[in-house]
Amino acid sequence: MVLVESSPPLARDYIKILQQCPKKTTYESTRVCETFDALPLIDLRGLTGDDEGERAKCASEIVRASSEWGFFQVVNHGVSPRLLSQMRREQIELFNAPFSRKSTCGLLNNSYRWGSPTAASPDNFSWSEAFHVPLTKVSDPACYGEFSSLREVLVEYAGAMQKVARMVAGVLTTNLGQSIQEFEEMIGCDESTCYLRLNRYPACPLMSGAEIVHGLVPHTDSDFLTILHQDQVGGLQLMKDNKWIAVNPNKHALIVNIGDLFQAWSNDVYKSVEHGVMANAKTERFSVAYFLCPSHDSLIGSCKQPSLYTDFTFAEYRNRVKHDSKLLGRKVGLSRFRR
Ligand SMILES: O=C(O)CCC(=O)C(=O)O
Ligand SMILES: [Fe+2]
């Protein structure tokens, strides 16, 4: 039997960067992390029911979690467990395809990526592979090749995530005095601006107790809002009060996190916090992220004065992030636009 390799050559690239790294001590070799169960868990049923008091209570929990944590979990989110497990099955099948198939054959709008092409040190290397698909391409049959059953699932999944994102964004904008309709009009947000990212974190044999490898390097998201579904393996961590905190998997929950643009628009009321994924020595991990983004030319000003940030378009923001990543090997982010 001929074994066809499905994983990208991560070890080859990682070792190359490790050898080029001038001093081994320049990269972070250990990371203290606390497991913390108090990451807010919010029951979204309160938002959809008739009880006014319940709705207000749920909304205030969302606002509070977005301000204090920038990260929270939601249950009773309306996405069926059937759809979530179908998505996971399709995702596993897709990533099981040979590496050459994933990387060269136009799958999902040619959106396959892996490792970190711009990494200059092991600190900036991500031990993962992903498809990053614009929602407009999700229904295009030309994106799927032999993975035809993935199309139907991805279309349904995108619709379901869009609903959750809209519900949460609606609470956050209303709290700052703007309806979700006004907000969406202002940021030109529609199908053509949002993305789904299918992530796979292969098991990492280079990971030992003393040395860590990132599945995804610490970062903030360059969007308004992200809705994440992770499997039961664990590895996601977020920064809270200068400490790394592990997000324990909860199979009923979706994870919501605030992105840079909501932080800017809210004038720092909502927080876009650093998060990342630790690689796992033995077990592969899967997740899917939905990114709520504005149109490229939409102006991200603050909804409050005096504004802490200069006005910038989403295109300017993305270009800046791209430029910094190329030049410095990492994203600088919102501080580039602080007054
Ligand atoms: O896989 C995860 O848990 C996190 C993914 C993530 O942060 C991202 O895709 O931006
Ligand atoms: Fe992220």
TrEMBL record:
SUPFAM superfamilies: Clavaminate synthase-like. GO terms for biological process: coumarin biosynthetic process; response to molecule of fungal origin. One of its GO terms (molecular function) is metal ion binding. PROSITE patterns: FE2OG_OXY. Residues 192-294 form the Fe2OG dioxygenase domain. Pfam families: 2OG-FeII_Oxy, DIOX_N. The keyword Ribonucleoprotein does not apply. The keyword Metal-binding applies. Keywords: Iron, Metal-binding, Oxidoreductase. Belongs to the iron/ascorbate-dependent oxidoreductase family. This is Gibberellin 2-beta-dioxygenase 6. It comes from Sesamum alatum.
